[in-house]
Amino acid sequence: MAVKHELENSLLLDDDGRTRRTGTLWSCIAHIITAVIGSGVLSLAWSVAQLGWIAGPVAMLCFAIVTYVSVVLLSDCYRYPDPVTGTRNYSYMDAVRVNLGKTQTCLCGLFQYLFMYGICTAYVITTSTSMSAIRRSNCYHEKGHNAPCEYVYTPYMLIFGAVQIVTSQIPDFHSIEWLSVLAAIMSFAYSLIGFGLGLATVIENGMIKGSITGAPAATRAKKLWLVFEALGDIAYAYPYALILFEIQDTLKSPPPENKTMKKASMIALFLTTLFYLLCGCFGYAAFGNSTPGNLLTGLGFYEPYWLIDFANACIVLHLVGGYQLFSQPVFTFVERWSSKKFPNSGFLNNFYSIKLPLLPSFHINIFRICFRTAYVVSTTVIATVSLTSTKFWGY
Questions:
Q1: Confidence at residue 325, expressed as pLDDT on a 0 to 100 scale
Q2: In angstroms, what CA-CA distances link 318 with 130, 274, 330?
Q3: Which has more pLDDT, 157 or 395?
Q4: What are phi and psi for residue 88, nearest 5 degrees?
Q5: DSSP 363
Q6: CATH tag, 18-342
Q7: Any idea which UniProt keywords this protein has (predicted)?
Q8: Which are the contacts of 344, defined by CB distance < 8 A and separation ≥ 6?
Q9: d(CA 251, CA 42)
Q10: What share of the chain has pLDDT > 70, as a percent?
Q11: Is 11 exposed, middle or buried (0-12, 13-18, 19+ CB in 10 A)?
Q12: Cα torsion at 347, 349, 354, 360 (round to 10°)?
């Protein structure tokens, strides 16, 4: 009986004693696409407009290559010292710790989690922009394109924050696979819509707009600033290297996790770069020097309004998953650190089983509820204040 029990445990647990991982190539691709393709894909047309027909596409390809090389190098650091049989590094900070030491770990961890926190705050703003764009699109359809259709963003931020308070109670990164799949589907949907509307506009115009040097600026200094801003937007469109280890830690083996990660990254980056080029180039070809900052929320397109509404709804659903993808590593770090620091605290470590009618039982932790709720509230408040102050100062 003892031998049988040990055999059952070996089938349920991985080599590090944790629950056996079940992630596959396709779930890994879904995570990567959710992390990489953000609503920023719709602003790439503006970036191409600043760089021109040669530099714009070349810049996208260069950043894709740099990202893939970074991923190949990082994926071999998941296990240490051997990339196949070594000890697992569960996060970016763990890999820094074993390779570079404690001091660099603190610095890298600080910048990594601040970056993730900033992304989550930006997602709150972007979501409210997309939700507001749905109302404006309907308003323009009913009252004309010159109608004063402006709405306050704050209620939409609060709605998104309330949704994130609920979804943030998902236990860990391993449990959001379904959310990443949904988000990946949504990202493909609104990217295809952006590409399709750009192509339709080019056909309607009967010409390809734009130039080799891009949109002109009042001064050389202004042009240089816009070029660097465009490069920054393109670089920001490939942000998933910092959560690579969390994604790789969901993969089952064999085959070795680093091989699956490299293959998934190649497929995902090929698909995302293809969509980037299609949306960026056809958006620029459609509008030329007057390309809006965002093809959908900037209302570069007005009709068909129902398709614009659907695309913006897809952006909102995608950002629900994207927010969790960048929040879960922060949640995990804080909760594990707190548990190790105060191992005897019931507030931190005790879990309680809850059973609601028609729903499966689940476990709750008081600290998890409090911390994750406070985290979501803080990003929502900062997003609201920053957007309000920006409008107040007229930017």
A1: 82
A2: 11, 19, 20
A3: 157
A4: -75, 140
A5: E
A6: 1.10.4160.10
A7: Amino-acid transport, Auxin signaling pathway, Membrane, Symport, Transmembrane, Transmembrane helix, Transport
A8: none
A9: 31
A10: 89
A11: exposed
A12: 150
